[in-house]
Amino acid sequence: MAEPPKPWMTREQFVAAMQRAGLTLATRQIDELHRASEHIGNLVNRVHAFETDPLTSAPAIMFKRPLAP
Amino acid sequence: MTGALTIAAAADLIARRKLSPVELTKMQLDRIARLDPTLHAFVCVTAERALADAKKAEATIMAGKSAGPLLGIPIAHKDIFNTRGIPTTAHSRLLQNHVPENDATVAARLADAGTVMLGKLAAHEFAWGGPSFDLPWPPARNPWDPACFTGGSSSGSGAAVAAGLVLGCTGSDTGGSIRMPASLCGVSGFKPSYGLCSAAGVFPLAPTLDHPGPMAWTVEDCAILLQAMAGHDPQDPASADRTLLDYRRELERPISGLRIGFVRHFHEDDASVSDAVKRALNDAVVVFRSLGAEVRDVALPHLADWGACGMIILVAEAHALHEKWLKTRIHEYGEIFRDRVAMGALLSAADYLAAQRMRTELCKAFAEVMRNVDLLLCAAMPDGAPAMGEVTKMGTFEKPNFSFPFNVAGAPALALRAGFNDRGMPLGMQLAGRPFEDAAVLRAGYQYERATGWVRQRPAMT
Fold first, then answer.
1. Which of B86, B179, B366, B452 has a CA that sits 20 to 30 A from residue B60's CA?
2. Do B341 and B315 touch, CB atoms closer than 8 A?
3. pLDDT < 50: residue spans in chain A
């Protein structure tokens, strides 16, 4: 049987991150958003799993440098 | 005259003095008074300003001065576009009393082209999230069935065009916010290349993904609006300084020989769509082939890669913009936007930069595919508009949408009507092109629209 996925962030880590950001949340919100944060965790994991080359994959910040063909 | 005119048709009548801009504006205001209490497409109707604009346009015509195609045409702006002296709220309690001192660049350019401003259109709060029922204004309703979702965030824009309340309008698109409501409301919505239309004076959501653009009943009307909106603006650091084509004239060039890549894996393997959408896309392939285009399947990176990259960038940039208010005025936000943007607190600088590096690679893959084809054809939405109650707060994080690839790539993308489902709700599809080859995208959309005639059917309520 496959192991269940590990939580991206524990409830304590989630609360600490929200406090660091200065966000005041009610307990109900914390429970709900902590559950929903799994989806963000999946997206973050997918981004970090994507292979990029640190020498050539410069961050594509397009301010003042619009994409050009 | 019903008021449900296209911009092209109205412009022709105005130029020939068969239609008075003042009479047209009065008809539009009557139509808004009749239908908007059901649709809630407008947050503010500027009747006095509209009539003044219309009288000015009429005086220009009567003086025998040459009339551009937007002279006397009634439009409106998504309420994240600044309008001088008129409240611009971003559909949020936080900006309920915000009255800008200047127009957004594109609003000023459309005014200079002689348009008549009917008012400001509903959006999702700060252009992300919805439908919301805890904001000072109700969410817009879909004219094809008011129990259904409009899509967003340019929700009022989609509803107003579909109901014929306006002949065209502005929208903005960070992850599909022009193309999703265009698809669900059965209108045409064009997200231009990144930097083609100035974002100066448009409340940002995620500045490296934000694209202002036009929405209208037809692709031709989008091309007419784009002509006025596009062009370099030193006030926008991301604005592109490029020579503009005559987008309307370009529409008439044949598309025979054009190479169209069908991104079938987006909707057959990476995500699912209804049978009606599959049929509509397959039928579109047949239509394009009958017009002389060459259509073949192509493979882009997985839809979920585009979605993850785009969403991490969006959440991080939006959180950075709202960080101060989230600390001091969090209770003034609506629940959906607040809870979505709060997720940015969980992201690190490394996450954001990893997403921007991933974007570089995705753009390279996009460019590689576009070496062999001129355009892409793909799904726009999984099906027609769902009921309002079926839209969930965090659903946007759970499944990748079909729009994000072209925000990530900064490429032009058009949503246009491709049929109807068995509930009679319109279905959309997307055409996309290489950055700054906006004209080719519009041209293929225009010729498809003309060949199929889907745009002849209007919502029953109108």
1. B86
2. yes
3. 1, 63-64, 66, 68-69
Q: Are B159 and B141 in contact (CB under 8 A)?
A: yes
- The per-residue pLDDT for range B342-386, each reduced to its tens digit, is 999 999 999 999 999 999 999 999 999 999 999 999 999 999 999
| Main-chain phi, psi angles of B173, to 5 degrees | -140, 110
Report the largest interatomic distance among the alpha carbons of chain A, rounded to a whole angstrom: 51
Q: How far apart are CA B397 and CA B312, in angstroms?
A: 10
Cα-based distances in Å from B161 to B25, B32, B91, B119, B235: 15, 11, 19, 13, 29
Decide if B379 contacts B267 (C-beta within 8 A): yes
SS3 B35: helix
A60 to chain B nearest CA, in Å? 5
Our answer to whether residue B153 is catalytic in this structure is yes
Q: CA of A6, closest CA in chain B: separation in Å? A: 17
Question: In the annotation, is B132 catalytic?
Answer: no
C-alpha gyration radius of chain A: 17
The answer to whether the beta carbons of residues B285 and B295 sit under 8 Å apart is yes
Biggest distance spanned by C-alpha atoms of chain B: 61
Read off the pTM. 0.96
The predicted structure's pLDDT at residue B462 = 75
Q: How far is A9 from chain B (nearest CA, A)?
A: 9
ipTM of the complex: 0.92
Confirm or reject contact between B365 and chain A (CB < 8 A). Answer: no
Q: Which residues of A touch chain B, with CB atoms under 8 Å apart?
A: 9, 14, 17-18, 20-25, 29, 32-33, 36-37, 39-44, 46-48, 50-52, 54, 56-64, 66-69
Q: Which residue in the list B92, B155, B177, B198 is annotated as catalytic?
A: B177
The residue type found at B189 is: G
Which one-letter DSSP state was computed for residue B269?
I
